[in-house]
Amino acid sequence: MWSYLRGGRLVLLLLLLLQLASQSAALVQPLVVNRILDALQSGGSLRSPVVLMAAAALSSILLSMVAKYALERFGHRVIFGVRQNLASCILRCRVPDLERCSAGDTLSRFASDTAVLQGALSSAVVNGVAAPLVLVVACVLMSTIDVLMLLVVLGMLLLAGVADWLCWNRLYRMTGQLQDQLGRMTGALQRILVSFRTVKAFATEDREERVLRGYAEAAYRTGTRAARIEAAADGIAKVSIELVFLVTLVLGIVRVSAGALTVPELVGFLLYVVYLRGPISIFAGAASVLSAGLAAIRRIEQLRSLPAESNGTEPVIPPGMYRPGWGSTPLLSGVRLDRAGFTYGDKQVLTDVTFHAQRGLTLLVGPSGAGKTTVLNLIERFHEVERGSILLDGVDIRQYPRQHLRRKIAYVEQDAALLGDTLRAALLYGAPDAGTTDVMATLQAVDLCEWIDSLPEGLDTPVGERGITMSGGQRQRIAIARALLRQADVLILDEATSQLDGRTERKLFRTIVAEARARTVIAVTHRLDVARDAQQVVVLDRGRVHAVGRHHELLRTSELYQQLAAGMAEKPVPRHPTTV
Length: 580
Ligand SMILES: Nc1ncnc2c1ncn2[C@@H]1O[C@H](COP(=O)(O)OP(=O)(O)OP(=O)(O)O)[C@@H](O)[C@H]1O
Fold this sequence. Notes:
Helix 1 runs antiparallel to helix 2 (about 45-90) and helix 16 crosses helix 17 (about 560-565). The protein starts with 8 loop residues before the first helix and ends in a 15-residue tail after the last helix. Residues about 310-330 and about 570-580 have low confidence and may be disordered. It has 17 helices and ten strands. About 60% of the residues lie in helices and about 10% in strands. The strands form two sheets. The chain has a six-stranded mixed sheet with strand order 6-7-8-3-9-10, sandwiched between helices. The protein binds adenosine-5'-triphosphate (ATP). Adenosine-5'-triphosphate (ATP) binds near residues 344, 347, 366, 369 and 371. Adenosine-5'-triphosphate binds near residues 344, 347 and 371.
């Protein structure tokens, strides 16, 4: 918890002092009441104690207002920092690590857990520290009136404190459980929202409703149990203070009768006991908010502890070997995979993959699950090659600073999402400085000019949730245009044209190859209509290179390729000798 307050500890101390000042002003009141009663008994002037009383009440109210505002503001500031740091951690963590996390649960940690933490940091930390301090001050003042009665009060509060502590311990576990359940519920809802059409098409609304209800019910049960414990802790605090009042009253009357205490002293002491209600219930409340805050910290820390991508990979490439930013100079020697190997867990996915993609188009084909996307992931360094190497421009890709490597590559993934509010923003996502001429030329290349001209707002048409609805093919063409605009040395397309018809796809590929004459294009496709235009075709089968060659050669030499061309190789076929 303290590490979250780093940089704000001085402010926290000031807030604590402010909180103490506001509560101390209230502490003066019983003393003043004592003086008023004395004055009444002795027939002295009431003016100055009454003015003092009003001043103490007013300053207590004013200080508590300022303290409340300052506390809230402080909490928001700390959480702003936590969210910034969390955003940075999320964006910098490794692709496989983040993909293992549920997106909904990550959202819940980022938005809800940080909000819970804000409550804990602002109210619980300051009130949790201020309330006991105020209690101590009150006890010191009470000791000036009657030590015996104070000892009785303390003994009873101690017993109540132990009972409350047991409750808070359970509450901490319960709130952690509740936040995990809420995270799972958000995850389930997020999955449904992303696949809403599938849910509708399969008419599984009832089943999904049951799933959501299950999570909501689990959260409800845990929340109810937590509320019971919270109420019990609150009840213990309140009952203890009422009992303390009654016992003090009885004991006080006995002591007044015995002449050990005066009536004004008894009234003053009882007022302190009444006053203790505030700090005790604040402390009890702070403890429950703190339990939730600690549970939130555990979940936030799990996200923050995901290792960053760049950990331990300092660039060792000689200066001048790479150009920062996306360049326009053609690659000298393209992308070369040399006996590259990779496993997912203990599953061998790629073995000794060797091919050289030079300028022009290299097609990567093969049956489903052959490892085509994995090859692209290795080139992008979403995963690290485990055996062999991948060279870009003759340099091992592990020697490039990761961001520079990725600036050299424009990647269009399967079902690429568009990021940006408008079509223009979506297009310029990877190349914010691209000029209008480049944008128009690229739109021409992907055959989108006519469609965009037909839109009333043209390139400024909103996209996204409430914006324009596009066909799958239009979306894919925007994604390709976005990648082309980046003018990167290498263009990687992972089934990026799967939603276009064969004729449009062929036309688009011809344009891409013409556009990228000086660059290397590596494209995964299941349709071989475009293979004639490719410089080479690499056939992958069960993680190995089955054959490499031009379309017409492979049609003669590779049975697997013939099957792929005929659209028959849905499943892996018996292994054939490798032709590299
Ligand atoms: N994140 C992952 N964790 C574990 N195994 C994976 C993961 N991603 C892919 N695989 C497995 O690795 C193998 C290769 O997958 P990959 O996606 O590279 O094949 P592909 O040739 O691109 O398939 P497709 O043509 O169907 O897209 C498959 O058996 C797949 O089940």
